[in-house]
Amino acid sequence: MAGLSHSFPPQKQAPRPSKRLGFGLHFGLLLAVGPVVAVLWSGCIDSTCSTDADCAKSEYCPLAVGACLLPTPIPSACKPRPEGCTSAVLEVCGCDGETHESACVAAQAGTAVAFEGPCEEQPEPEPVVGCGASCGDGEYCELPTGACVLGTAEGSCQPIPEGCIDEVKSPVCGCDGIEYDSPCHAAMAQVQVFAEGSCACTTSPDSCPNGTFCELGVGGCFDSAPTGVCRSIPTTCPVAYVPVCGCDGDDYENACVAAQAGTSVAFEGVCEEPVVGCGAGCGAGNYCELPLGACVLGTAEGSCQPVPEGCIDEVKSLVCGCDGLEYDSPCHAAMAQVQVFAEGSCACTTTPDSCPNGTFCQLGVGGCFDAEATGVCKTIPTTCPIAYVPVCGCNGEDYDNACGAAAEGQNVAALGECELPNDPPPGP
Predict the structure, then answer these.
(1) What residue spans in the chain does CATH classification 3.30.60.30 cover?
(2) DSSP code, position 156
């Protein structure tokens, strides 16, 4: 039994108890007819057992596999030990702590099965989650910070604070998605601490504790970097039809039902195919105006506006158009029927969304070797001249000329073909 760490209940040696009667015979009847009838019946009904010691020497207690490892095994009924077993070998560890060739051989030895496999290879015990059994009165189960997301951490019972008067205010986000003034205040509410600081969140996984979700403002999921507040997922909702479209693109009867699904509200009303731009387009003398920067998203709804006839009185206020060109003012961009990508110049970096769709951030030759390089948003060409003036792109690919690289949104790392086996420079 070397290496066996399971604690098996002792197999007590005790005389076989009197046979118990089945449920069909009322105890009062025994009192009425006397012990003789009881003896006659005792030979017909199996006795119950919790260990092998409760059975006769020719019997054993056939508990369920692993039941003998429990503090209080579910009782079984004594059965005769089998007289013969097949030659099949499927080793088991018996409740007597010995390895047997099979469950049948274990039964022949008068013992049930603790687990499959040799006793030396007993399975690892299941980890304690939380505090196992509940804590006593006046105590709560304290887990490590953030453990409520994992759902597998072991905790310890701690006394519930009676007050937090002397606690310095140090906000924490509880596992219920509610902010508390300090860890002490969370403990008073018997709530685990999910994270230090506020319950502000993003839509990234594990941004909120289990049982909560990151609730954004209506339409917040259309933001490029949405933030919200961790809220408890409701368990019940009112029966009211106030339809909303969830950020997951599904329809919900109301905002509460959307929250039950762990999603924020994209907009009120049922989900429909969103109108992109101005739908069928605007008439002569009009252009489609989109929100600032919406040309990167490609999903925004716009409105038809008249094309300005002039911008003489406009104060110079540079904007970068969605065509990658700079304009003296939003009015000048509107005259060119161009959406405004960003206020200010078209200076850019190689970070995503630094330039509008259809453009790329054009750096100087070799600029991709500079981690802090800045460039200018330029329109991605749709056609290029047939000229062989080879360049090496910032992606490590060869191009016939610089225009060919730009057509793929790539900058020029060096003039001439790429030299192998050099690794491609970082960034476009």
Answers:
(1) 139-198
(2) E
Q: Do 323 and 248 touch, CB atoms closer than 8 A?
A: no
Structure pTM? 0.32
Please name the fold of domain 286-345. Wheat Germ Agglutinin (Isolectin 2); domain 1 (3.30.60)
CATH topology of domain 359-415: Wheat Germ Agglutinin (Isolectin 2); domain 1 (3.30.60)
Poorest-pLDDT segment among 114-118, 132-136, 201-205, 373-377:
132-136
- Residue 290's nearest CA partner among 328, 256, 334, 254 is 334
Determine the residue type at 315. Answer: V
Cα separation, 104 vs 91, whole angstroms: 10
| b/e burial code for range 316-336 (CB count within 10 A of at least 16 → b) | eeebbbbbbbbbebbbbbbbe
3-state class of 330 per DSSP? helix
Tokens of 242: 């106030």
Residues in the chain: 428
Structure tokens at 420: 């192998």
Separation CA 147–CA 131 (nearest Å): 13
Q: Copy the structure tokens of residue 136.
A: 């006593």
CATH number belonging to the domain at 212-268, selected among 3.40.50, 3.30.70, 3.30.1370, 3.30.60: 3.30.60
pLDDT reported for residue 398: 92
Q: What pLDDT, on the 0 to 100 scale, is given for residue 219? A: 77
